[in-house]
Amino acid sequence: MSDLDAPARLSVEAECRRINETIGYCLDHRLYDELLECFDQDAKVLRDGVELSGREAIHAALAGRPADVRTRHCPTNYRFTDVASTSARAVIYNLTYLGAGDRADAPSVLLSAYPMFVEYHDVYRRVGQRWYLMERRMSTMFEPRQDGCGPPA
């Protein structure tokens, strides 16, 4: 249920998209301080049974990402299921490409012929005049085969 007219709803949706796309870009370029500004102080991130609570826990997990792997997050198919003046919920599909080597002067070699497909269930909240991601539940829906090859024969 929405308490907003169409232009206001579109404005909220655009802000939530901006947050999500900023997070993806910052992950890909290891801009973790900027990324954390998208999350509320008490935000929760849950992925395949692992829960991180708060910016500090999220930062610690980010610091453990392998330095020699390049990623590119490609969010798509935003489905806003609830939009109000101070909160929003969305389901987002994300394709993540993983590559060996993260050098600015050379392309990475894809670790798989297919990207990983992850579904996000997000909760956003407005605090004052600013929107934050409060909760992200991530579920890996499809992942590449371990040998990096295509679909089974």
Please describe what this structure looks like:
With 153 residues, the protein is α+β, with helices and mostly antiparallel strands. It is 24% helix and 45% strand. The chain contains three helices and seven strands; from the N terminus they run H-H-E-E-H-E-E-E-E-E. Strands 1, 2, 3, 4, 5, 6 and 7 form a seven-stranded mixed β-sheet that branches. The longest helix is centred in the N-terminal third of the chain and has 23 residues, at 6-28. It starts with 5 loop residues before the first helix and ends in an 11-residue tail after the last strand.
Brief characterization of the structure:
The protein is an alpha+beta fold. Helices cover 24% and strands 45% of the residues. The protein is built from 3 helices and 7 strands.
Descriptive labels:
alpha+beta, 153 residues
> Over all CA atoms, what is the radius of gyration?
17 Å
Basic shape: globular
Quaternary organisation of the protein chains: single chain
Share in β-strands:
over 45%
Kindly state the number of beta strands: 7
The structural class is alpha+beta
* CA distance, first residue to last residue: 46 Å
Bin the helical content: 10-25%
Biggest sheet character: 7 strands, mixed
Topology pattern, helix = H, strand = E = HHEEHEEEEE
